[in-house]
Sequence to fold (325 residues):
Amino acid sequence: MKLVDTHGRVIDYLRLSVTDRCNLRCVYCMPRQGVLKTTHDNILRYEEMYRIACCAVSLGIRKIRITGGEPLVRNGIVSFLKQLAGISDVEQLVLTTNGVMLYELAEKIRDAGVQRLNVSLDSLDRETFASITRSDKLTTILQGIEKARLCGLHIKLNMVVMRGVNDHEIIDFARLAADSSTTVRFIEYMPVIREAEWQRMLVPSREVLSRIGSCFQLTPLGPADFAGPSSNFRIDGTDGVVGVITALSDHFCSFCNRIRVTSTGQAKGCLFSDASVDLKPALMEQDNIMLARMLKSVVEAKPVGHLISSSGCSYQSFSMASIGG
Fold:
């Protein structure tokens, strides 16, 4: 079965957030004063999330990414990952993490059935990292990444590029990709909390590629199965890959293949849309037919594209942790 939206896009990718809690405070994710924490009673139970995942897979979802907040801070996450890995027809189970807890959990994550990790890492410099994350965890994260690599997990590093903050490290990250046979993806800054003059932070991906191209020869790669929005390039002469995610400068909406469900049960067809469908009534009624109908309605209402650009945006500000990055 294929799940197709009204614009002809095949939807085969579910991003499922398990918590809005996080052990970092990244400046682009939440305001300095923080955000109100969702009460325990409002967070879906694992059993409910499992029902959502099973229903989504029955409709045509083939890739599930677990996100947060930071998913590894939630108790019982490893057992839940093992449950998801056991769902028939799930072809990819992947996890996005900030890496703080990777060192202690890498082997358990692998054994649970996770195949790939995306690790958010916005700087290789201790001071810059601390200014971005409001935390001094860089060494811990780098140790966790190495542990995960040794465990055999396929790792992608995600760097949010911010002008005047960490864009001087673009070549360092590209060199890391080349030297360690890793995939590094450079993500354009997105104004989720809509702070004043956010446009000055944006480094367009064409500029990122130009900088990398001044030091390395790049060969374009085709999209992988269930590919996300990254345009990827092999660094010639190495097994390293760099990718760019052009959220603002060149919208990838025309081939967006995902829906997302927040930790409170709100299903969304687009990160930057204020529209959502509350799945909790179907979960409380244990009505799988209603749940399937709700998920289909999210797909049917999926917009042709988001309405943000380098010149402006038209949505309510939000914490990325509350929706699932």
